[in-house]
Amino acid sequence: MTAMTSFAPDSLTLNRKLPLWYQVSQSLRASILGRRPEDPLRLPTEDDLAGHYGVSVLTMRQALKELEEEGLITRHRRRGTFIEPAALRGAPVKLLGSVDAIVAQQSGGHTAVLQYGRAPLPPEVREHFPDLTEAMAYRRLRCDEAGEPTNWAENFVRPDLAAGIDLADLERWPMTKVLRDVLGVRISRITDTVEARLADPETARLLQVPLLSPILHYTGVTYDGSGRAVDVVRIHYRGDRFSFTVTMEAR
């Protein structure tokens, strides 16, 4: 196997209950959307990627086909596979039950930390932290490559975990990835709720949309291996930039 001298994707722990090609495509998608500007655009070969993820070349090919159809990569015979720098970042919200799908969903564009600090728990968040009265709150705004706001997020994280969070990591990666890959939290599950809402004054101001315009409101609760909630996130997506898709696989 040749050494990876091109773009280096993140590692992946496979879940045998989900299609392998899907997990690989979502993990690679998250790596692509979370890349630094100075990272190379050329991807490793199919063989190298398959070895990196521990899957067959056929599975890797199927994963790459998914990303090519989405417009994130382009494939050229004899030249190789390249990340498409002008790829659309406002992709549909697609979930199939894996943590890497969540990471991929929340990756891409440019993220700025607007505010952080200890804060009282709102009623809808408090039910997930029955042993706490306050948590560390992070507010972040994500924009596309053109600088247009696409969503803003508010995370409530247990204070003992928040002590190890670097703000620079939050400007590059979603909170889920920081908790799992940087802090080493063993994530057992994430519950997701998506509902249609109307933009309140703060959301309208941050997303630059008219007051009471439609938005997608996402709530995600992340649990560790002991079953306790470690992070609750509320994300407000512009309704004209995102859709929500659930894929159900027949067994």
What do you see in this structure?
- By secondary structure, this protein is of the alpha+beta class.
- The protein has helices at 20-33, 46-53, 57-70, 99-105, 123-126, 159-162, 167-172, 175-182, 201-207; strands at residues 73-76, 80-83, 93-95, 110-120, 134-143, 149-157, 187-198, 214-224, 229-238, 244-246.
- The longest helix has 14 residues, at 20-33.
- It has 2 domains: 20-83, Arc Repressor Mutant, subunit A (Orthogonal Bundle), CATH 1.10.10; 93-245, Chorismate lyase-like (Chorismate lyase, 3-Layer(aba) Sandwich).
- α1 packs across α3 and α1 runs parallel beside α4 (99-105).
- The two termini are 35 Å apart.
- A hairpin with a 3-residue loop joins β1 and β2.
Number of separate strands: 10
Helix content: 25-40%
Which structural category fits the helices and strands?
Answer: alpha+beta
- Element order: H for helix, E for strand: HHHEEEHEHEEHHHEHEEE
Low-confidence stretches: 89-94
